[in-house]
Amino acid sequence: MNHTTEIIHIIGTAAFAISGYLVGVRKRLDILGVLIVSLLTAIGGGMMRDVLVNRTPAVFTQNTALIVIGITLLLAWLFKLQNNRKKVLAALFLLADSLGLVAFTITGAQVGLMYELNLFGVVMLGFITAVGGGIVRDTLVNDIPMILRKDFYGTVSVIIGLALYALDSFGWVNTLTLNILLWGGYALRLWAHRVSWALPRF
């Protein structure tokens, strides 16, 4: 994992830890409940991805994610995010969850590239890494997972996975292009939410 990818992974981990924290607060869970939801949101997708490629989940061998989650939750508590109005909490959740979605799509797809998977494999690893933690989070608190109910959510992950595969095919994966993917994908997700983009329904 190169330096840029490590930073993107840290960003995604912190973002999903915050989204889990906010869901735990909204559901009025106790401290342990909030910790569990936040932890599994941040590491769930990565664990699913690692199992699929038959490797020990990174969180079992590296402490970076656990440290990032701990610091993030401490800061969230110190800044009393839970004391904001519902509208503010909803906005914070959207910002954090969208950033986690995009960041983890990139890191997950890069694992697929590292294992020299085909296009489908790269896109699926990015997708699973991005949405897996959110599925665990929503299932734990008895919500329908966002991937099944939100506008243009999983589609953003697929688009980023396809773009990263194309960039790699041309040898164009570098710090600049990864940052463009990260912030461009983030802007796409937020804009799609703002204008209520959605795939056609049956």
Automatic annotation (TrEMBL):
The chain crosses the membrane at residues 6-24, 31-48, 60-79, 91-113, 119-140, 152-167. One of its GO terms (cellular component) is plasma membrane. InterPro entries: Gly_transporter. It is a multi-pass membrane protein. Keywords: Cell membrane, Membrane, Transmembrane, Transmembrane helix. Belongs to the UPF0126 family. This is Membrane protein. It comes from Neisseria arctica.
